[in-house]
Amino acid sequence: MGLRERFTGLREPWRPGHALLAIPVVLVIVITIVDILVPEDVHLGPLLVIAPAITASFAGPLLTAVIGLLAVAAQAYIGLYFGVLSSRNVMVQIVALAVLSVLVVFYCVLRDRRRRELAQVRSVAEAAQHVLLWPLPARIGPLRIASLYLAAEDEAQIGGDLYAATRIDDGTRVMIGDVRGKGLAAIGEAALLLGAFREAAHQHTSLPALAAALEQSVTRYQADFEPKDEAGERFVTTLLLEIPDRGHITHMTSCGHPAPLLLNPAHTVTATSLHPAPPLGVGSAGPPDYTVDVVTFEAGDTLLLYTDGVIEARDRDGNFYPFAERATQWTDSSPEALLHHLRRDLLHHAGGRLDDDAALIAIHRPAQ
Asked: Are the C-beta atoms of 193 and 161 separated by less than 8 Å?
C-alpha cells in the first residue's frame, strides 16, 4: 500500500458538521492572542484544552487529533513568545495538554467503534425484520394496504407483534397477532406463527380450520421450546380475516385478539363485533370453538387492525390512548397517511416511547 492509499484510508469523509471546525480553531486563536495581551501573571493557556474537547462532540479521531496538535502548538508558541518555553511550568502545561488531547482522541476512537457496532446490530435487526415480517404490498388484489410496527424494546426493530397477508382464490387472507411478552424473547414464536400462516392459509378452506392448524403449530412449538418456568404462561392472540374480492362481507375469526375498527369516509368509526376463542397455545381442555364473525366492508371503507400495544399505551397521567376517538379524525385518509397520523399521535400520547410492541394494519377497499 502506497503513501497516498494510506493517507486516503485515514482521511475522514467530509460531513456538514465539519464546518463546525471553525469554532475550535477560532478558540485556539482567540485564547492565544488574549493570553499574550493580558498581564504576564495571568495564564489562559490551560483553557486551550477546550478546543479538542469541543471537536470531539462533532468530529472523528483524526480531526480531533489535529485540533489537539494545534492547541499544543499554541501553548508552545505562548511559552516561546514570553521566552519561558523551557521553564518547568510551561513544559508541564504542554505535556498535560498533550495527554488530555490524547485521552480525548482515545474517547473518539471508542465512541466511533461503538457507533459502528451499533450500526451493524441495527442493520442485522432490520434484515431480520424484513425476513420475519415481510413488508406488506401497497396493493393486494383490489385492496390498498399499509402496515406499521413500533417495537417497545430499545434498539430493537422487531418483537412479539406480527402480521401477514396472502392471496387466495378470489380473495385475501390477513393475520395480525400478538405474542405474550415483547422484544427479542418473543421472536421465535412470532416467526413460527408467520411461517405456519403462510403455508396453512392456502391449505384450509375455512378460517376455523386455519385457526386450528395454527393452534397445532403453536402447541408443538411450546412443547419443544417453552421454558419450564413459563409453562402455560405463553400464548398468542390472533385475528384472521378473509376479504373476498367481490361482495361486501368480510369474515373474521378471533383467537383472543381485539376486534378491528371499521372507518367510514363520513368520519364514523365502528368497533366490529367478535366472539373470540381462547388465544393460541392456552391449552384448553377440548378443541376450541372457533366462530366466524362477519362485517360489512364496503367500497370506501377502511379496516383498521391493531394489537393491544396501541390501545394500552398510557400518557403521563395513566390515561389509555383513545384509539377510536383519534382515528375518527383521519377516516378519509389513505392507508399510508392514516398510519402516519396515528403513529405520530400515539407516540405523542405516550411521551415518545411505548411500554409494549404495537402493530397496525390499514386495509382500504377503493371504489370500483
From this structure: no
